[in-house]
Amino acid sequence: MSMLPRALAFLLSCCLVGLPAAPASAADDSARILIKGKGSRFTASSNPSVPAAIATAIPRSKPVKYTARVLNTGDDPARFKVDLFTDPLFIPATQTVKVGKVDITAEFEDSGVYTTPILAPGDYVELDLRVTPDPDFVPDNPNYSLVLTGLLVYSTDSEYLTGGALYTMLKAPAHGTSGAEIYVRQGSQPYVGGEILGGFAMSPVVSAGGSASFKAKFQNDTAETQQIIGDIDVLAVDCTELTAKRGSADVTEVLMEGDYVTEELAPGKSETIKIVLRWNGEDCGYPYVAAQIHAYGPEDPDGIDEQEYHYALIALPLEAE
Length: 321
Hints:
Blueprint: H1 4-16, E1 31-36, E2 52-58, E3 64-72, E4 81-86, E5 93-99, E6 102-103, H2 105-111, E7 113-115, E8 124-133, E9 146-154, E10 160-170, E11 181-186, E12 192-193, E13 200-202, E14 211-219, E15 229-234, E16 240-246, E17 249-250, H3 252-256, E18 260-261, E19 270-279, E20 288-296, E21 309-317
Parallel strand pairs: 2-10, 13-21
Antiparallel strand pairs: 1-3, 3-8, 4-7, 4-9, 5-6, 5-8, 9-10, 11-12, 11-14, 14-19, 15-18, 15-20, 16-17, 16-19, 20-21
């Protein structure tokens, strides 16, 4: 049942929306953008074609705060241009941006970009962002029920240097419509997923050796009692460790082999497992470690109907070096 290529499809395609092509040759100026949500650690990407990513799940009408640092990684003092946008495929949002106590939102609205002050090598400017999703907007595609805020950094010659993606995920409805719903959450954040395919829960940034706990809930939202089949795929297995438990029982092996089966679930009932993801400190090739968990309904014995299928992502953003 491995669906690993699909596991990255939502996360990476969203990250890459609106991203310019990587420069053919190195720019005279160089920069990194470091981002964070909750917690004190920042994440960043060393690959311009793969932005760093942060996600926070909230109720629809609540604001969420993010912090971004534009760091001069070159050898000479330099200014940089910062492009801030909300991807129109997803839910619109009200955004405010401050540098210290100075509100620079109008600068983005008037010119489309913010130009940093001159930064000495190793110095940075810090931007504080506040994102409030439109409480009334309903996207045509329910899978786009999130806010995607992009931060792209350019040289003053308009050459793309680096980027970051801020995902504001919306709390999932309590019930869906199928017999194989899967919801995930991290910490005190609300559940995401369900009918919103590819919804994902992300922890605060972790350092090497760090881990985070998630809950995955298999739920039957049909009118008949049934079981749900579950499995999970891990991105970058060489740098990721995963354990899963249902109560005190270790279900890691059966989940990873696609042989996990819930108890008989009455209509509206669910079964929850605890998943722990750990970054062992090795190079992952991405600025995060991730896993995709799937929920399948019973196979139709006559092969007439497609097997019910939902999936969601869990991820750890990795601390910048």
